[in-house]
Amino acid sequence: MFATLKTLIAGTNARAEESLRDHFCIELIDQKIREAEASLKAAKFSLASLIQRERSETRQITALETKAADLMARAKEALAAGRDDLAEQAAQAIATMENELVVRRETLQRLETRILQLRQSVEGANRRIIDLKQGAVAARAAKKEQDIQKRLGAHVAQDTAFEEAEALVARVLQRDDPFEQSQILKEIDSGLDQSNVADRLSDAGFGAPVRSSAADVLSRLKADA
Predict the structure, then answer these.
(1) Distance CA 161, CA 151 (A)
(2) pTM above 0.90, yes or no
């Protein structure tokens, strides 16, 4: 039972998270773009630092090469002049410089490799951020369209309510008039009742009148006059 409850709770949390992400999707996209831009900025600073070190190493190598070449020329002159002691000192200094040049050239090569890799990463990240921003524009447009569709859906629901109300009104208006219906029923009942047969015959001129009429009253008045 506990495993089932745990699964249900996990499912509920997942749906709630999905609903929250859907509701704030534009805000989340903007935040992720800001985070990506911050990472890109840090990568640019690292790249700038590596390039600065590369240039420094290049200057150091150039300076050492120039100095070693100068000492080499001077050592040759010392040997030609028979100053082997000075030539030996120059040779020792040149050897130290050459060893340092080996280390610095290896360092420079590693820096160049790292700079190339990081530059490619920076360029790739920059392109991805551009794509993300374009995608964010499309996402905002889609979200706006979805909101409009929701509002239209709400209006459609309201229109449906109006239509249902109008249909109910029409239905009420189309019902038979109960008063008219009662009058028709009375007419039907009177037609079924045989008591008015004599009245109908009298009205048709057959036999003595059953009911007094205005003509009869008027005739009597004239006779009395």
Answers:
(1) 15
(2) no
80 SS3 class: helix
Sign of the Cα torsion 162, 168, 174, 178 reads negative
Q: How many residues does the chain have?
A: 225
* Domains in the chain: ranges and CATH: 2-173 (1.10.287), 178-224 (no CATH)
CA distances from 54 to 49, 58, 112, 141 (A): 9, 6, 7, 46
CA 16 to each of CA 54, 139, 147, 150: distance values in angstroms, whole numbers, following the listed order:
52, 21, 20, 20
pLDDT tens per residue across span 122-171: 898 889 888 888 877 877 777 777 766 766 655 554 556 556 666 666 66
At residue 225, the 3 state secondary structure works out as coil
AA letter at 73: A
Dump pLDDT digits (tens) for 27-60. Answer: 878 888 888 888 888 888 988 999 999 999 999 9
Is 47 exposed, middle or buried (CB count within 10 Å of its CB: 0-12, 13-18, 19+)?
middle
Q: 101 burial class (0-12, 13-18, 19+ CB within 10 angstroms)?
A: middle
